[in-house]
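Give me structure tokens for this 338-residue protein.
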Amino acid sequence: MNSLPASSRLDQLHSWLSAQLSRRSYDLTPASADASFRRYFRVRLHDDNSTRIVMDAPPAHEDCRPFLHVAEVFAAAGAHVPEVFAQDLQQGLLLLSDLGDTTYLTALNGDNADALYADALGALACIQGASRPGVLPEYDRERLLREMELFPVWYIGRHKNATLSEAETASLYEVFDQILAINLAEPKVFVHRDFHSRNLMLCSPNPGVIDFQDAVYGPMTYDLASLFKDAYIEWEEERTIDWLVRYWETARDIGLPVRADFADFHRDYEFMGAQRHIKVLGIFARLYHRDGKEGYLKDIPLVFKYLLKTCQRYRELHPLARLLDKLEPGTTQVGYTF
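Here you go.
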């Protein structure tokens, strides 16, 4: 049952769904897919034209329990997440409310960005305000480092077909240690872990929050780096800093555990972004080379740009800037001491 061919898996889904809907007739169309084995289908009922979403998460590859747990935690915090109408963990099937098909990525433009990001930050503040230890997995040093180690394996080794010397490897891990020291010193909150334009839905109440099953308890600026250093959409840095300042001021006012000084908070955000972008470069390369998902290749240059810019700013990260220049000659500005 866990490794069925696609056609058999779809038959299984239809059989389960028909029972959940009391044999009401419906149409089933693809809604979306993500970087995992999960697939999503939109169900449109013929009798009233209402819609639902079915999550298809094959148990051999996916576990629905974290999704259900985080959905409950985030909903209790006041975030707008899908309602769970039915579940079958053995078959890996969930029937969910439909938050629509308009992502922030498709909706955002220069005119509405201030308002939409304000809504997103409001949702994030709700999630962070409910934070407490022991509820979600710890985003600890081992996990953060393991994520960054995807970079030398998949981006450097596989994607760029490059081999690091012993000295370069040691230098890279020294940079990793510098980044982790800042990351792990941050205040801890609930972290969505992919809080960006593809996982925020334009709906009412706005936004709808999806794809949160990997949520953890960890560094406070992680979701902010996901949101404002988004792999799929780019904004002028002056504008993102303005949004970040507004968040920081509001967070202080409502008692979230942000740094007292914005400069310290911004440094945390920058180093958190570096950790994330190192990881994402490895993940995007792996999605292409291992999983055949070439759509992520077009997003690599922006992620590389974010990482390079941060590495150029901070002396501790200059060795990584030099390595990035070796991988992509001509991208690093001259004049840096390493």
